[in-house]
Amino acid sequence: MRPGTSHISHVTSPDLLDWVRPEIRRLSAYHVPDASGLVKLDAMENPYHWPEDMLDAWLAELRQVALNRYPDPAARELQAALRQAMHIPDDAALLLGNGSDELIQLLALALRHPEPGRDAVLLAPEPGFVMYRMIAEFVDMQYQGVALGPDFDLDADAMLAAIEAHQPALVFVAQPNNPTGNVYSEAALRKVVKAAPGWVVIDEAYAPFTDRDCLPWLNEYPNLLVMRTVSKMGLAGLRLGLLAGPPAMIAEVDKLRLPYNINVLTQASARFALEHAEIFDAQAAHIRDDRAGLSEALSAIDGLQVFPSEANFILFRTPAGRARELHQGLIEQGVLIKCLDGSHSRLTDCLRVTVGTGNENKKFINALNTLM
Ligand SMILES: *Cc1c(COP(=O)(O)O)cnc(C)c1O
């Protein structure tokens, strides 16, 4: 066949699609908008790259990487670097994923309801991270959302009642929460971990931007796991997440991991990056400062309600019925943020902006001011 010619039929008979599981047919694919040419403030990426000398040192290390060999299946050196950089308790076991999204999937694949004939339930507060629901649907778990209370804090009574009623195999709580940006009252979160009969995962994807840290809780609650990622700290392109928890629980999930899930370039690059943790700490501190400035600038615009954030993004509510038009107007002015209107009843008229560089934030605020 000549290059560029194709004999694949573009007409697929419905019978062939009948082989696909119905819960997959019902899904719509996760949509990532095209950001070419736009100031990209939609995906919680760190806007900063590395100093030139650090880039040179990194490239020199990559020259040594054996692309012809399979990676270390346990990524031991990288695990050691992560333990040190993130202060993982010595007696916790670690499991690495191709992004923490992969870890959510492995957990969902591993768990069941202990009583025969009952569907395993994945429970999470809402509005929350969309991958919990999507992955529950992929693996045919029953997804149960529980509404957050006022100010998007955990509603401990509602969570406890739902936990009692549904006996979830898996509870996910992201703190700080995405897309709301807040942290929860500590007492409410402890009640949830304590009440859950199954496994609880506290997802600390935004750990670099808050002082909250539940890793020490691993010593207090035998059913708890803590998930982290290097994505939001500035390595989203590498795809690397980690799950810390009791060795016996981690060992079961590890059986599902494909042997070489962390590729050699990610292992080498993340290990190198973590040797320069001070660069990432400085960037995170800078982003935290700029978050305060951005929040103030948004609050100064008449008609916006700005929610408090301990993450690297800010949720805000526009005047009724204007979120989509403002989102589109921003794109026309060269700035892409995230429109959440219509994604959840509690997010009507809401937009979410990632904290960018000083210039990017200014460009966003100016564009929004013009549109308002
Ligand atoms: C971004 C995000 C993740 C995904 O992280 P990856 O490691 O990039 O897959 C997980 N949880 C929450 C709450 C997030 O916002």
Report on this model:
The chain is of the alpha/beta class. 38% of the residues lie in helices and 15% in strands. The protein contains 14 helices and 13 strands. A 7-stranded mixed β-sheet has the order 2-8-7-6-5-3-4, sandwiched between helices. Strands 9-10-13-12 form a 4-stranded antiparallel β-sheet. It has a two-stranded parallel sheet with strand order 1-11. Helix 7 (156-166) packs parallel to helix 8. The mean pLDDT is 95. Pyridoxal-5'-phosphate binds at residues 44, 99-101, 129, 174, 178, 203, 205, 229, 231, 236, 241.
CATH class of the largest domain: Alpha Beta
| Tally of DSSP β-strands | 13
Tertiary shape: globular
Beta percentage is: 15-25%
Order of helices and strands: HHEHHEHEHEHEHEEHEHHHEEHEEEH
Strand arrangement within the widest β-sheet reads: 2-8-7-6-5-3-4
Share of helical residues:
25-40%
Q: Identify the CATH architecture of the largest domain.
A: 3-Layer(aba) Sandwich
> Radius of gyration in whole Å, from Cα?
22 Å
Mean pLDDT: 95
Outline:
The chain has two domains: 23-51 and 278-371, Aspartate Aminotransferase, domain 1 (Alpha-Beta Complex); 66-276, Aspartate Aminotransferase, domain 2. The chain is built from 14 helices and 13 strands.
